[in-house]
Amino acid sequence: MCLALLVQARYREQLTLFAKVQKRQSKDEATIAELRERLSTLEAQLRSTIAQNHTLAEENQGYKVRSLSMQESIETLYEDLLSTRGREAQRDETIAELEEARAKDETTILTLNERLLSTSAEKRALAEENKRYEVTLSADLSNAKEEVAQHSTTITDLKEAQAKDQKTIIDLRQQLSTLNPLLLSTSDENRVLAEANKGYEANSLSMQASIDTLSEDVSSAREEVAQHNSTITDLKEARIEDQTAIADLRQQLSMSEARLVRTSAENRDLAEENKRHEADRLSKQESIDTLHEDLSSAREEVAQHNSTITDLEETWVEDQTTIADLRRQLSALKERLTQTIDDYSALAERKKKCKAVLDSKQEYINTLSRQLLSTREVVALHHATITRLKEGQAKAEQTIDVLRKHSAELSIENFQISARNVTLAKEGVTRFTAYQQQMEQKTKAVAYWKDLCMQSKLNPAQAQQVRRRQEESNSGTSESESSTGTIVAQDQEIAQLGAAYRCR
């Protein structure tokens, strides 16, 4: 009976122990289910963090690509700046060449002005000499005309006195027939001289008009030089503005390079953080694997509890230890999750900052591109102004060549006019001497006619003297005819020269 009671008591104790073990097993299963749920949530959170890490890595790669594109764009901008600097250097060289050409043009214009002044002074002197020579010629012609008029009056008086003698009248008619061509030649000479004077006046007027045109061309050339000076000053001001813009661009490039260095450092930090996140993920995966292993071991222990009640206490102790370890792991996982969440928020903030920095860099690149476009437009304008300056220089050179040609023609014309004036002076002297000779011949003829008038009252010796005088007068008339022929030929040559000058 005692043994039966003891067995029953032992059985009851075993039943109570089994009930307690079942309760603990149910509690352990509930805790295991909670742990599984927590593990599933943790796995979902880890998956989300992994996905977020992947997205962050992709965004970092995108940032890297953008930074590379920005670096390339900055390099292209730097190359464009170098090209613009080269263009500015070429433009400075062209401006220096244009300034040298302008200085040469100014020197040539000054020399041409001096030559024009000298030619104008020479023309004035020649015009004054021509006027004085015309005055002297007109005085000489008036004196000759007066003398011819006096002689004609004396001849008419002699004709009236010798109307009675037929022979003397016939001789007088012969002498008059010889004198008429001389008078006609003198009148023709006077007409030719008047025409020559008119031609000289026309030439002087044309020369004055050419001088006026030259002065107008010189004034226009000066205006063009002033315009060139104003354009060169504008180019210098534009160059100063370009230099300031280039300095600003350099500062902005240095700032952008510093920002790029910062962004590259931030990208490196992000890469290191991503590596750390990968390491944390691997450690979490290992902990999850360990948890799975612990769960499998717990299941084995539960099976062992079912098989043997004696091992339940030991397994219970082990379960308690494993539960404590799991709770520690859960707290560690929670802490890691909080850290990952904080890291994610920090990464999001950094992402926002990177986006803001990239947006600012994009805006800066856009401003740089706009500034480059503006600088290119300014360079195009400078090229247009340089072409205009070159065209103006070509026009100035053309005007200078025209002025040189015109000055050479004027110098040649002045030399020809001076030579013609010398020849005309010589011809005037020869004509004046010829007129004097004619006057002497006419006086001789008058004396001869007087002698003929008195011939009827003279003796034979006086008649011989009169005949001798008549022979001398005849020889004088032949000489006067030859001199008049030479004078007529000279007048014809002078008329031909005047016609050639008018044709020019």
UniProtKB/TrEMBL annotation:
Keywords: Coiled coil. Residues 473-486 have a biased composition (Low complexity). Residues 25-59 form a coiled coil. This is Uncharacterized protein. It comes from Candolleomyces aberdarensis. Residues 265-283 have a biased composition (Basic and acidic residues). The lineage of its organism: Eukaryota, Fungi, Dikarya, Basidiomycota, Agaricomycotina. Residues 264-283, 460-489 are annotated as: Disordered.
